[in-house]
Design a protein that fits this description.
- The chain is of the alpha/beta class.
- It has helices at residues 57-68, 88-100, 107-118, 135-142, 167-173, 180-190, 198-205, 216-225, 248-255, 258-274, 292-298, 320-323, 325-340; strands at residues 4-11, 20-27, 41-46, 76-83, 127-133, 154-160, 194-195, 227-229, 242-244, 279-284, 309-313.
- The chain has a single domain (4-172, 258-340), classed as Rossmann fold (3-Layer(aba) Sandwich), CATH 3.40.50.
- The chain is built from 13 helices and eleven strands.
- The protein has an eight-stranded mixed β-sheet with strand order 1-2-4-3-5-6-10-11, sandwiched between helices.
- α3 (107-118) crosses α4, α4 (135-142) packs across α10 and α7 (198-205) packs across α8.
- Residues 43-329 form the AB hydrolase-1 domain.
C-alpha cells in the first residue's frame, strides 16, 4: 500500500534551542478520512538514536493495511513521524546550528519537537497515540512534561524496546567492558561515516550488524534518509558522496544522555501511578541491548511503573521495528484494537 505523505516544518521553542523541526504525515489515499477535522486516531511515532522518521514507513503501511482488512473498530485517520533535530532531514535543516552548539542536544530538547507538533493545531480533532522506539521512548515520555496528569495530550502510549536504565543499573554497568551500551558508544566514536555513494553505503551496511539483520525495506529507507549528500557543515571539503545525518558527535552525545533517561523513568512512574494514561511496552526476545536487568528496572512496580501490558516479539532484538516491521505493526494493531475498544474508551 502506497500512502500519501506530506512534509511539514516547524520551529522549536527558544528554550530548547529554536532548531528547525521536520515531520512527515501519512494518510491512506483510499480513505475518505481526509478532512483535517475528521474524528479518530492519529498515531505519532518517534525514532531512536541513529535512525530517522521514515524508518516507520513499513510499520505505518502495515497498520493501514490491517485497517483495510476489516479492522474498522479503530479509526486511524493519519500517522505522523518526526526527525530528531540532529537526525535525518532534521540534521540537514540544523547542520550549521548543531555544529555551533556548545551544549549537547538532549532528549528534553527533542521532546520539545513532539510538543510543538501536538500544540500546532495540525492534528486538530483527533486523539493521539504516541509510539516511541529505543531512545524515542524516553523522548515520548518526556514530551508529556509540562502537562498536568489529568490533561495529558495522548490517548495511549506504546514504548518499543525502552532502553533506559535506573541510576543503580547505570552505576553497576559502567565498569563492565562487555556492556552493550558502552560498546555501542565506543563504536560510534570512530565508526565509518562517509561513502562514495548510496550504493556503496548500502553494500557496506548490508554486511554489518545490526543493519544486515534488518528487513530490506528498512535498510533501503535508512540509506535513503539517514545519510546526507556531501558536502555538509561537518565535511565542507568533501564534494561527493554521502555521510551520516546523525554525526559521530551527535550519536555519542545521545548515548551519553543518561540524565534524561533517569528523568524519563521518573516521569514514567508518575504517568503509571498518578494518571489514567494507558502505557504498553513491547520488547524483542533477543536481549542484544535491553538486558533482563534493564527491563526489570523499567517495569519496577515498586517505583510505580506498572504498565497496561507487556508484549515480547519472538525472533527480534532491539531493532525490532527494522527487523520485523510487519510483526511490529501487527502487535501495535492488536494493542490498539484492545485499548481503543474498551467500554471506557472515549472513542
Amino acid at each position: 500500500m502506497k500512502l500519501l505523505s506530506t512534509e511539514f516544518q516547524l520551529t522549536g521553542s527558544r528554550e530548547h534551542g529554536g532548531l528547525r523541526l521536520s515531520y512527515k504525515r501519512y494518510r491512506d489515499p483510499c480513505s475518505n478520512h481526509s478532512s483535517p477535522n475528521t474524528t479518530g486516531i492519529a498515531l505519532l511515532f518517534m525514532h531512536g538514536i541513529g535512525l530517522h522518521k521514515e524508518t516507520w514507513e513499513p510499520v505505518i503501511e502495515r497498520i493501514f493495511q490491517r485497517q483495510h482488512e476489516g479492522g474498522n473498530r479503530v479509526n486511524i485517520v493519519e500517522a505522523w513521524a518526526m526527525d530528531g533535530q540532529n537526525h535525518g532531514y532534521g540534521a540537514r535543516l540544523n547542520e550549521v546550528a548543531l555544529l555551533g552548539r556548545t551544549n549537547a542536544l538532549t532528549a528534553h530538547n527533542v521532546a520539545d519537537g513532539l510538543r510543538q507538533l501536538v500544540q500546532s493545531g495540525l492534528i486538530t480533532g483527533k486523539e493521539i497515540v504516541a509510539i516511541g522506539h529505543s531512545a524515542g521512548t524516553t523522548i515520548t515520555v518526556l514530551s508529556t512534561c509540562g502537562y498536568a496528569l489529568d490533561q495529558l495530550p495522548y490517548r495511549a502510549v506504546l514504548l518499543i524496546e525502552p532502553a533506559t536504565r535506573t541510576r543503580a543499573a547505570m552505576d553497576k554497568l559502567k565498569s563492565q567492558p562487555n556492556d552493550p551500551v558502552q560498546l555501542i558508544t565506543a563504536l560510534a566514536k570512530t565508526r565509518k561515516d562517509t561513502w562514495t555513494s548510496r550504493e556503496a553505503a548500502y553494500e557496506w551496511f548490508s554486511r554489518r550488524v545490526p543493519w544486515k539483520m534488518w528487513d530490506s525495506r528498512s535498510l533501503k529507507l535508512f540509506v535513503d534518509n539517514a545519510l546526507l549528500d556531501l558536502p555538509t557543515a561537518t565535511y565542507p571539503d568533501h564534494a561527493e558522496g554521502v555521510t551520516l545525518a546523525a554525526t559521530r558527535r551527535e550519536e555519542v552525545n545521545g548515548y551519553r544522555d543518561n540524565e534524561s533517561g533517569i528523568e524519563g523513568l521518573q516521569r514514567l512512574s508518575e504517568l503509571c501511578s498518578q494518571s489514567n494514561l494507558p502505557i504498553h511496552c513491547i520488547f524483542g526476545s533477543r536481549r542484544d541491548v535491553v538486558s533482563e536487568e534493564t527491563r526489570a528496572g523499567i517495569l519496577d512496580a515498586n517505583e510505580g511503573r506498572t504498565v497496561s501490558s507487556v508484549t515480547t516479539i519472538e525472533g527480534a532484538g532491539h531493532f525490532l521495528p527494522q527487523e520485523l516491521p510487519n510483526t511490529t505493526a501487527d502487535t501495535i494493531w492488536r494493542i490498539l484494537e484492545t485499548e481503543l475498544t474498551k467500554p471506557e474508551s472515549r472513542l
